[in-house]
Design goal:
By secondary structure, the protein is of the alpha/beta class. It is built from 14 helices and 16 strands. The chain has helices spanning 14-25, 41-53, 60-78, 82-103, 109-116, 118-133, 157-169, 199-209, 243-251, 263-266, 321-331, 356-363, 392-397, 424-435, and strands at residues 2-6, 31-35, 139-140, 176-180, 183-185, 191-193, 214-219, 240-242, 272-276, 285-288, 298-311, 336-341, 345-350, 368-381, 403-411, 414-420. Strand 12 (336-341) and strand 13 (345-350) form a beta hairpin. Bound molecules: adenosine-5'-diphosphate (ADP), aspartic acid and magnesium ion.
């Protein structure tokens, strides 16, 4: 069994949806397709949720009408068989009725999740019906029947696997199963999401749950690049990454993968292939346990970082002080990304600042606190990158970019720098230019 995940742009237009069909048919054996919503749809659904929250109910129906039209047009172009087209339009009507009813509920976290996951439900139904109209047998599966994820950081893949088995064995066998990315059921048995971009994570959770042979992530670029192509010119594809390298890059902001994508398949050694839906013949990036090349591979950036400096003349080196500080963050389930210490101060960073005020109030009793928001972590990644004789050039570059913190040696695969977000693009560009000059490129496309 293989997992094939197609992202928003891959299913964003009728032509791309036809490409997806061809890619699926070109591969033998059993497949589970994990599909996102059409490009832009989740953003519109988030807008509906925001309008509800703001009590601006008048504008909601216009957004819903536009979404309905977009999907009706897709059905019209994709499905030629009149009976299947009619059946699909009836299902679409029913779902839009449910969406309208949901917008009449009182807003809550769960209602947000119910609304934003409609995009995946609608698109998977259209795609399943499209295949059916082309005479391709397939089974549509409701992810809400098996994607039970109580702990977002550590999903119980065994449970998902058992539920998946239960759901599929009650249906006719098929070589093609189609399900929704992004959506899950949380620990309170309510509809929830794996966070924005979460369909990648659905694919690897499901891959680990059923011990898939491989997970393919189909997107709009030819693979993992050595730097963020949205901000930097002349980036290049990387043909191979290790699990550790890809996990660091995804966690530290490489948008091509949801931050948690790698962890479910790591223990099971299930490889991930990143491929381009628009040029399926090109080889993409393979992510696996193997390390074929050591040294610098790629740079990524993670925004929305808050730096906290904790200064205490009296207590820092006293036994038990660090534990007290960490306990405060732990009590609020807030992960720390970077940390540096001196004799009288600790600086650390967090990206989840939902409980910042409560955390600061508690820390205040131990030390003097300074907080700086709007920072970015720039992450330089590669197996044994810290042993790379060229990484000294990193420090040479830091002269004209103010760096707030450096983490070097925490892992041999990662060097992290904290900069003000307004210097992020300049830092990425400069590092690209200086570190990926020909003599330093450890691997090119
Ligand atoms: P999908 O909708 O298929 O999930 P995403 O937009 O989430 O696609 O991810 C693909 C995009 O990620 C690319 O178009 C590219 O702009 C962006 N991206 C950011 N960093 C990288 C990187 N290091 N390598 C490749 N793409 C990247
Ligand atoms: N459609 C969801 C989003 O836009 C999930 C995904 O695309 O992975 O965030
Ligand atoms: Mg994505």
């Amino acid at each position: 069994m293989r997992i094939l995940k197609f992202g928003g742009t891959s299913v964003g237009a009728v032509e791309s949806i036809r490409n997806v069909k061809n890619i699926v048919l070109s591969q033998p054996g059993e497949k589970i397709l994990v599909l996102s919503a059409m490009a832009g749809v989740t953003n519109e659904l988030v807008k509906i949720s925001d309008l509800m929250k703001a009590g601006n109910l008048g504008e909601i129906s216009k957004v819903i009408d536009d979404l309905r039209l977009k999907h009706e047009l897709a059905i019209n172009e994709l499905i030629q068989n009149n009976q299947i087209k009619q059946e699909t339009n009836l299902r679409l009507n029913k779902i839009f009725g449910e969406l309208e009813n949901t917008t009449k509920k009182t807003h809550s976290e769960t209602v947000y999740s119910e609304i934003v996951t409609f995009g995946e439900t609608i698109l998977t139904i259209i795609f399943s019906q499209f295949l059916k109209s082309e005479g391709i047998n397939n089974q549509w599966l409701d992810a809400k029947e098996f994607m039970y994820v109580s702990n977002l950081e550590n999903p119980d893949t065994r449970r998902v696997g058992e539920l998946f088995e239960e759901v599929t064995s009650a249906k006719d066998q098929s070589d093609i199963y189609i399900t929704q990315g992004f959506v899950c059921i949380n620990k309170n048995n309510q509809i929830s999401t794996l966070k924005r971009g979460g369909s990648d994570y659905t694919a690897t959770i499901l891959g680990a749950s059923i011990n898939a042979k491989e997970v393919q992530i189909w997107t709009d670029i030819d693979g993992f690049h050595n730097n963020d192509p949205r901000y930097v010119e002349n980036t290049h594809r990387i043909s191979e990454l290790s699990f550790e390298e890809a996990a660091e890059l995804a966690y530290f902001g490489a948008k091509i993968l949801h931050p948690q994508t790698i962890s479910p398949v790591m223990d099971k050694n299930i490889p991930i292939y990143l491929k381009n839906t628009f040029t399926p013949e090109s080889s993409g990036t393979r992510i696996s346990p193997e390390v074929r090349h050591k040294g610098l591979k790629a740079i990524s950036a993670k925004d929305g970082i808050t730096a906290i400096k904790i200064k205490s003349n009296r207590m820092l080196m006293a036994h038990g002080f660090l534990r007290k500080i960490f306990d405060v963050f732990d009590n609020y389930e807030t992960a720390i990304d970077m940390i540096t210490t001196s004799e009288i101060a600790i600086s650390l960073t967090i990206d989840d600042d939902r409980n910042l005020n409560e955390i600061l109030a508690e820390l205040d009793s131990y030390a003097e606190i300074t907080v700086e928001k709007n920072h970015s972590i720039i992450c330089v990644v590669g197996e044994s990158v810290i042993e790379d004789k060229h990484t000294y050039r990193l420090f040479e570059l830091l002269n004209d970019i103010p760096v707030r913190m450096i983490s070097y040696g925490g892992s041999s695969n990662n060097i992290s720098l904290l900069v003000d977000t307004e210097n992020k693009i300049a830092t990425l560009r400069k590092l690209n230019e200086k570190l990926f000059s020909t003599s330093l490129i450890s691997e090119t496309a």
